[in-house]
Amino acid sequence: MSDIQDYIDQHIDTFQEQLFEFLRIPSVSTDRDKRNDVRRAALFLTEQLEEIGLDKVTLHETAGHPIVTAEKMVGEDRPTVLIYGHYDVQPPDPEELWTTPPFEPTVKEGRVYARGASDDKGQSFTHLKSVEAFLKTGSALPVNVKYLLEGEEEIGSPHLVPFIEEHKEALACDMVLISDTAMFDEDQPSITFGLRGLAYMEVHVTGPNRDLHSGVFGGAVENPVNVLAEIIGKLKGEDGVIRIDGFYEDVLPMTPEEREAVKALPFDEEEYKRDLGLTALHGEQGYSTLERASARPTLDVNGIWGGYQKEGAKTVLPAKAGAKISMRLVPDQDPDKIARLFERQVRALAPDTVTVEVEAHHGGYPVVIDLDFYGLKAAAKAFSDVYGKEVLFSREGGSIPIVADFKKVLGVNSILMGFGLTRDALHSPNESFFLKDFHRGIKTSARFFEVLAEMASEQG
Ligand code: BES
Ligand code: ZN
């Protein structure tokens, strides 16, 4: 065992305490009232980075939440790894469904329960502690590291792309390292080589100029909630195929080899259903569950409203209805084009008895990373050294839009080294993270820097 791995073992309790302190900060980026808490989380990171001994630790103000950067340069001949993570979290809602308070980290059966435990405080913090192990033991850090930590990932990173463009030189690197995804299964490390993109839309349907008596007017006046339901119903067929003209135009079909690779993954569909409390699954015909949830595009209503929602029955013909609808995208779909096609389809489906407004929220491009990239090989070796198991390569259905921008603006690939699990309940009540994966994550990160440096020097 090396000094580095020893240091991590000896300090794991302190690392956990520090993580819990981080988790106690309710850094909810969507909530204006939590602005100061989001800032506190950024300050917590700057203090950590300073304390670890990084250089150029900086908190950059943006029109939104701050961006934190730092670096440690050890040699021009060494590869440079840009570590990206996000310190903002999703709202804890619905809070009443949490068994323990969302911002009071609680350990149960080896897991820490708190909002952000997995997404992304617990996961991203591993890469601070791994670098600490090198710097505090006086061991030579094998690679150059740079940090880019943002507080707006959960709201679509509105200020990050301009920031990267503006700081292109300072952020120059050979690859980006991100831990904000999931492992394939418990104790089964995996590297995510594909993420879906996103087009997020909001639709408003307006009918009469006020809510009406549904007996007096019902039958003669179009009901906006009915109209919205019909429109949504027509956007996807029973076969799971999305009925938006041109929607599949740019979708790269999976190759037979890719489909074979997905089939070979050790996926237990019964367990998947059991975990979700479902007796049956549904999706696009002709594709497996794993393919549907990672390599095929989707359309889902995220929220819908209109009419009377409180207790009892109020007879009313509502004047308005609305819905938030997201589409997950795969290469080579373009979120702006998909947003336009969606709007055109919704307008074409709407009767002239109502008015329809369509608005596009933030979006993001999908990505697939080339499996030949040597950074992925280094990550695979680091994982198998620490977990004692070969890694699997899989695509995931979630989105980290900045990954496509790293490629576009900085010209580099990202390594998605997830330590979380799909069962961590990201964005749901009772989010959690295995402390054993926090521990192994720090070790894997440290090992990755060593293996990467070895591989780079072999490549000359
Ligand atoms: N960590 C997730 C993304 C993720 C989760 C990727 C699981 C792969 C597996 C990230 O924080 C997230 O939630 N992203 C948003 C992006 C959106 C706000 C633009 C998402 O996927 O909904
Ligand atoms: Zn998230």
Structural overview:
- This protein has 460 residues and is an alpha/beta fold.
- The chain has 12 helices and 16 strands.
- It has helices at residues 3-23, 35-52, 121-136, 160-166, 224-234, 256-263, 269-276, 289-292, 335-349, 374-387, 402-410, 435-459; strands spanning 55-60, 67-72, 80-86, 106-108, 111-113, 144-150, 175-178, 190-195, 197-206, 300-305, 320-329, 355-364, 367-368, 392-395, 414-416, 432-434.
- It is globular, with a radius of gyration of 24 Å.
- 44% of the residues are buried.
- The mean pLDDT is 97.
- Bound molecules: ligand BES and zinc ion.
- Ligand BES binds next to strand 12.
Q: Supply Rg.
A: 24 Å
Strand element count: 16
Strand order of the largest sheet: 1-2-6-3-7-15
- What can be said about the biggest beta sheet? 6 strands, mixed
Catalogue the unreliable spans.
none
Q: What gap, in angstroms, lies between the N and C termini?
A: 27 Å
> What portion of residues belong to β-strands?
15-25%
Query: Which series of helices and strands comes N to C?
Result: HHEEEEEHEHEEEHHHHEEHEEHEHEEH
Find the structural class using helix and strand composition.
Answer: alpha/beta
Mean pLDDT across all residues, rounded?
A: 97
Which ligands appear in the coordinates?
ligand BES, zinc ion
- Inertia-based shape: globular
How many helices? The count is 12
What tags apply to this protein structure?
4-stranded antiparallel β-sheet, binds zinc ion, binds ligand BES, 460 residues, 6-stranded mixed β-sheet, 34% helix
